[in-house]
């Protein structure tokens, strides 16, 4: 469907699609906007490719939106999408995909931490035949305890669970073939798992080291609590990838696990009765164990079912996970 939509756009506009779309989500980055635009512009002009630069203003409460409008009015290659409120990075990236026309789509942050000159390196790998090229901040300029350590743990866990061996899934600087990326549906906070989704549809994936700079302005939008969100998202991704067509495996496995603990707990109660003549009916260990197991299993299963229902809801209605207030330079 996505490719059909792009063909319609091409016919209506009468223009050839650009070779490159650079998508930059923005949230309260007024100090960085102008410098980021100039750096990206200088980088893409050296590539000898037709291009468009798409800024998605994710409900910024500072002057980011106004500054982006001024840039877009001066440069017709700059496209601007402004949200009505803050919908999150995943929604901003989804909007960038929906409003892009490029054969290759490159994502990067708007906080000057990514190096725009690395876009050319990503495209070289795309030209070699890869569908997804992920940036790897092997010399990351962030705080070790609050940023680097949680990131290392999350990346190791995601790679082991999903089977996609990337060092830095959290790096925003990535390049995708448009035909691959437009087959991926993004909801919730799933932007960090785009390479995983792409691998499920047979994308050829690689990664390369990229530059990384310390933040110059503003504050990071992420904290250590993000690690816990990643773990919850990972559970959902694993379920959708491995068990969405055979849920009995996960639900049946949970049921067997519940019975296993019930067997251990019941055996303990029986042993206590035989050896110590402790009442089976009034044993709090038995009651507490059964209660905790039931609650845990029910909560996990309800969470997974809720994720499935949300995806069905969005995909059946065909509505994007964001609301656009205004666009500039977009047909």
Question: Could you please describe the fold and organization of this structure?
Answer:
The chain has an eight-stranded mixed β-sheet with strand order 7-5-6-4-1-2-3-8, with helices on both faces. It has two domains: 8-12 and 17-238 and 320-328, Spore Coat Polysaccharide Biosynthesis Protein SpsA, Chain A; 248-315. It has eleven helices and eight strands. It has helices at 2-13, 33-45, 64-74, 89-98, 119-127, 144-162, 178-181, 194-200, 226-242, 248-276, 284-317, and strands spanning 20-26, 51-57, 78-83, 104-107, 132-136, 174-177, 205-209, 324-328. With 331 residues, it is of the alpha/beta class. The radius of gyration is 24 Å and the shape is elongated. α6 packs parallel to α9 (226-242) and α10 runs antiparallel to α11 (284-317).
What's the topology here?
Blueprint: H1 2-13, E1 20-26, H2 33-45, E2 51-57, H3 64-74, E3 78-83, H4 89-98, E4 104-107, H5 119-127, E5 132-136, H6 144-162, E6 174-177, H7 178-181, H8 194-200, E7 205-209, H9 226-242, H10 248-276, H11 284-317, E8 324-328
Parallel strand pairs: 1-2, 1-4, 2-3, 5-7
Antiparallel strand pairs: 3-8, 4-6, 5-6
Helix pairs in contact: 6-9, 10-11
Notable traits:
331 residues; alpha/beta; Spore Coat Polysaccharide Biosynthesis Protein SpsA, Chain A; eight-stranded mixed sheet; 11 helices
């Amino acid at each position: 469907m996505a490719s059909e939509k792009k063909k319609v756009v091409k016919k209506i506009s009468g223009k050839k699609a650009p070779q490159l779309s650079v998508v930059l989500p923005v949230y309260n980055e007024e100090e960085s906007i102008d410098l980021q635009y100039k750096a990206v512009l200088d980088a893409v002009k050296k590539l000898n490719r037709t291009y468009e630069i798409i800024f998605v203003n994710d409900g910024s409460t500072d002057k980011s939106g106004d500054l982006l409008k001024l840039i877009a009015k001066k440069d017709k290659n700059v496209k601007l999408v402004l949200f009505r409120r803050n919908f999150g990075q995943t929604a901003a990236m989804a909007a960038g995909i929906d409003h892009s026309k490029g054969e290759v789509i490159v994502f990067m942050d708007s906080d000057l931490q990514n190096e725009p000159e690395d876009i050319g390196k990503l495209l070289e790998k795309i030209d070699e035949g890869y569908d997804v090229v992920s940036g790897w901040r092997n010399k990351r300029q962030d705080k070790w305890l609050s940023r680097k350590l949680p990131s290392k743990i999350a990346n190791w866990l995601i790679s082991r669970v999903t089977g996609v061996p990337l060092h830095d899934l959290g790096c925003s600087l990535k390049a995708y073939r448009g035909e691959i990326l437009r087959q991926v549906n993004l909801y919730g906070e799933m932007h960090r798992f785009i390479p995983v989704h792409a691998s499920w549809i047979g994308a050829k994936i690689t990664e390369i080291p990229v530059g990384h700079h310390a933040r110059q302005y503003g504050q990071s939008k992420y904290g250590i609590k993000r690690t816990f969100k990643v773990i919850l998202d990972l559970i959902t991704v694993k379920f959708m990838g491995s068990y969405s067509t055979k849920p009995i495996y996960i639900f049946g496995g949970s049921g067997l696990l519940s019975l296993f603990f019930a067997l251990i707990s019941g055996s303990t109660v029986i042993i206590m009765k035989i050896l110590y003549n402790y009442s089976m009916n009034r044993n709090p260990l038995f009651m507490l164990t059964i209660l905790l197991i039931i609650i845990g299993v029910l909560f996990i299963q309800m969470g997974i079912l809720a994720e499935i229902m949300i995806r069905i809801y969005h995909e059946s209605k065909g509505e994007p996970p964001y609301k656009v207030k205004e666009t500039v330079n977009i047909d």
